[in-house]
């Protein structure tokens, strides 16, 4: 994670450049106008950024990148406004420092995401109104194997959860299929108990791909989970009971 000192410097630099943009009045880069769509920004944040970043109001718990509430709490306390945070986030999306992938969202979408993060970073409480409704809560259900098959899909909106929290299956051959409609990659693996060795691990998939595990299970307790860094810790796991 970045040192506080380095982040302060970045915030100051961007504050200066956001000012310059304001003077130039360049339409496309106008981060100060009201044209940002926060609802769209939140949806995109959850789908494209949340797997790597924690942001409380967005309900994301990714750990590959810095926690964005913590990252901006100090700058906000130091008196930088939310417009500045917005500018820092926009800059980071377009020209990321080091290890973050470049331009995950572009143009108006980048403006929307930056505006949302700028609006809610380090802000206590919960989103309300249209923002609260922007991202559907993952409704987890239980599932039972049918004809030796179990379907345990990933949340189609890219939240770090499967749509199934617990499943049952009879002993014998079992195929687990996990469809992932989101652009964030996931897989599915099965282990004995909660920390045993993997009995099988499906391919990493996104955009409609299916991660598939074929195993022969005996009666007992198992855990299915996503092996991508940080995804299990953020909630992408569930229990399989074999009878
Ligand atoms: C694949 C993981 C990944 C994704 C996806 C990702 N980030 Fe990042 N992000 C990182 C990492 C890692 C860093 C830390 C960069 C460094 O210091 O090396 C970072 C840093 C940042 C920072 C700087 C935080 C600070 O400490 O100052 C911001 C802001 C940020 N990301 C916003 C976003 C937004 C917005 C998105 C979605 C459009 C996004 N990130 C998507 C991994 C990711």
Q: Which cofactors or ions or other ligands sit in this model?
A: heme C
Q: Low-confidence parts lasting 5 or more residues at pLDDT below 50?
A: 1-6, 16-30
Let me know the largest β-sheet.
6 strands, mixed
Structural class: alpha/beta
Report the mean per-residue pLDDT as an integer: 88
Level-1 CATH class name of the largest domain: Mainly Alpha
How are the strands ordered across the major sheet?
3-5-11-10-7-8
Order of helices and strands: HHEEHHHHEEEEEEEEE
The count of domains is 2
- What sort of overall outline do the alpha carbons produce when their principal axes are compared? elongated
Distance between the ends: 45 Å
CATH topology name of the largest domain: Cytochrome Bc1 Complex, Chain D, domain 2
Structure description:
Keywords: Copper, Electron transport, Heme, Iron, Metal-binding, Signal, Transport. InterPro entries: BlueCu_1 (IPR000923), BlueCu_1_BS (IPR028871), Cu_oxidase_CS (IPR033138), Cupredoxin (IPR008972), Cyt_c-like_dom (IPR009056), Cyt_c-like_dom_sf (IPR036909). Residues 1-20 form the signal peptide. The chain is an alpha/beta fold. It has two domains: 4-134, Cytochrome Bc1 Complex, Chain D, domain 2 (Orthogonal Bundle); 141-242, Immunoglobulin-like. Helices cover 31% and strands 23% of the residues. The chain contains six helices and eleven strands. It has helices at residues 4-24, 38-49, 68-77, 82-94, 107-120, 129-134; strands at residues 54-55, 60-61, 141-144, 149-151, 164-169, 172-180, 189-192, 198-201, 209-217, 220-225, 237-242. The strands form three sheets. A six-stranded mixed β-sheet has the order 3-5-11-10-7-8, with no helix packed on it. A three-stranded mixed β-sheet has the order 4-6-9, with no helix packed on it. α1 packs across α4, α2 (38-49) packs across α5 (107-120) and α4 packs across α5. The protein is elongated. It binds heme C. Heme C is lined by residues 2, 7, 48-49, 51-53, 64-66, 68, 71, 89, 92-93, 97-101, 104-105, 113, 117.
